[in-house]
DNA sequence: TGCTGTGAATCGCTTCACAGCC
DNA sequence: GGCTGTGAAGCGATTCACAGCA
């Protein structure tokens, strides 16, 4: 137990702010779309609009990576795609295991965006013996008993937990003991992990509760400002920050 | 219930920081677990540990809601559960529609945590005519053509988008035009919405990319500190901030 | 001229440390 | 003595505004 204040300046090593790291994937997606349309260059203004952030923030973000733009012109799309991919570590392939092949786990396994960029589903693992061998998304499900062997054989360092809440902590411990150092947790539980292991979580009901809070507030205000009333087609605004991204806390730092 | 409620929330629910709102669901979950175990009171220290945050932050968070604790003692569990639920708007029922009943949409529909607290799946909507009438999680899927009618008939103000990226913006516009003012977006796209509509997004591949960044960094450092090597059973640390929660940007404000 | 890159100002959240009350 | 509630300090992220360069 870490009682002794292990004060670590959070983001040590390379000085890219967490908030910036969390936005890089957004930029990358926007850039990839531009690349597919063979657009050669973009201005910070255009790219920011496509990524749903403001341009000053984007320029500041990029300034942490280096000086990849050209004054008076903008950014070379292909070059930026490469630089960001490299920065995010997507130029290599990351084998990933998914543990817990229920509804959600199966949906994740089938999710296309997985393989698309740098990630590969190396194995599916479930505790139900009846699932063993059954293929999901073309990959045979393996039993939890073999978890350690699977992790080691495939050199997996990223694990996805999609088990029920009750099983998550134990699965987490086995993953970590077997060598996994990054975990994406879909189970509605707080995971305890040793230093050096990163955890990110995705939780539907938390997101809904946050929306409900704001929804309730809207209902309470009701017609404070003059406009409002007709949300339909009219003015549209690029949402400044959608959801859990622009976030900061991100990962538990090593 | 009701121990020290001598005070009224002097600071009416105006200025609750987004970061605090994003943590309330976490506290609520921890408190609910305590409640089920019939624990009558908790200290900020204990509750903070259960929620995976630090105790000063928790106390500060609660101070925005009012003075619900008792000095020298702690917080009354039942009373706090009620206060936080009320603050989050969970004392009322929120009908929710899910649009896009593919793998993910179906998994969401089946997700238990949905109904558990304040939310009810009012309808499932899909563009595929072949899906129409087919029950998923006991609820018959309806066709997109009837989207507007469904929203209005059920008084839905929260929508979940689980469609492919290409369809998301259009679905979003129809939801908003029909009266939805909060959207949870699972499609990997930036949604444009009018002022007054909140959007939160959940994106698997973004989370993975953020993990990959840190993973790559770890591989680069390698052997900076002496220990390492045996991540197994030893020291375990309550992750300070797991994933997209402790976040701030949250919702696009009205 | 136009757009990037960045110091400086600002904002908001977190953390500290202790006063206040049980 | 113990634990909450909170002013104040600290810190990171955002935003501003403009210098610098193609």
UniProtKB/TrEMBL annotation, chains A, B:
InterPro entries: CoA-bd, NAD(P)-bd_dom_sf, Rex_actinobacterial-type, Rex_DNA-bd_C_dom, Tscrpt_rep_Rex, WH-like_DNA-bd_sf, WH_DNA-bd_sf
Subcellular localization(s) per the UniProt record: Cytoplasm
Key words of the record: Cytoplasm, DNA-binding, NAD, Repressor, Transcription, Transcription regulation
Positions annotated to bind NAD(+): 100-105
Entry similarity comment: Belongs to the transcriptional regulatory Rex family.
Source organism (scientific name): Streptomyces gilvifuscus
The protein's name: Redox-sensing transcriptional repressor Rex
Amino acid composition bias (Low complexity), ranges on this chain: 223-234
Domain of life: Bacteria
Region (Disordered): 217-254
Main location: cytoplasm
DNA-binding region in chain numbering: 26-65
Residue stretches making up the CoA-binding domain: 89-190
Pfam families reported in the protein's UniProt record: CoA_binding (PF02629), Put_DNA-bind_N (PF06971)
């Amino acid at each position: 137990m870490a009682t002794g204040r292990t004060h670590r300046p959070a983001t040590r090593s390379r000085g890219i702010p967490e908030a910036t790291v969390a936005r890089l994937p957004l930029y990358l997606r926007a850039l990839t779309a531009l690349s597919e349309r063979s657009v050669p260059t973009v201005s910070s203004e255009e790219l920011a609009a496509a990524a749903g952030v403001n341009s000053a923030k984007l320029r500041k973000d990029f300034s942490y990576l280096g000086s990849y733009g050209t004054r008076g012109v903008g950014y070379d799309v292909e070059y930026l795609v490469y630089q960001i991919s490299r920065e995010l570590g997507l130029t290599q392939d990351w084998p990933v295991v998914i543990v817990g092949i229920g509804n959600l786990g199966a949906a994740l396994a089938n999710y296309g965006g997985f393989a698309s960029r740098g990630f590969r589903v190396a194995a599916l693992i479930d505790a139900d013996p009846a699932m063993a061998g059954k293929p999901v998304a073309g990959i045979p499900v393996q039993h939890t008993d073999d978890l350690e062997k699977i992790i080691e054989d495939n050199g997996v360092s990223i694990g996805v937990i999609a088990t029920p809440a009750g099983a998550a902590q134990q699965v987490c411990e086995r993953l970590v003991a077997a060598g996994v150092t990054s975990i994406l947790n879909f189970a509605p539980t707080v995971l305890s992990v040793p230093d050096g292991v990163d955890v990110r979580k995705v939780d539907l009901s938390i997101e809904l509760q946050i929306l409900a809070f704001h929804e309730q507030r809207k209902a309470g205000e009701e017609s404070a400002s003059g406009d409002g009333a007709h949300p339909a087609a009219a003015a549209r605004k690029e949402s400044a920050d959608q959801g859990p991204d622009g976030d900061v806390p991100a990962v538990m730092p090593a």
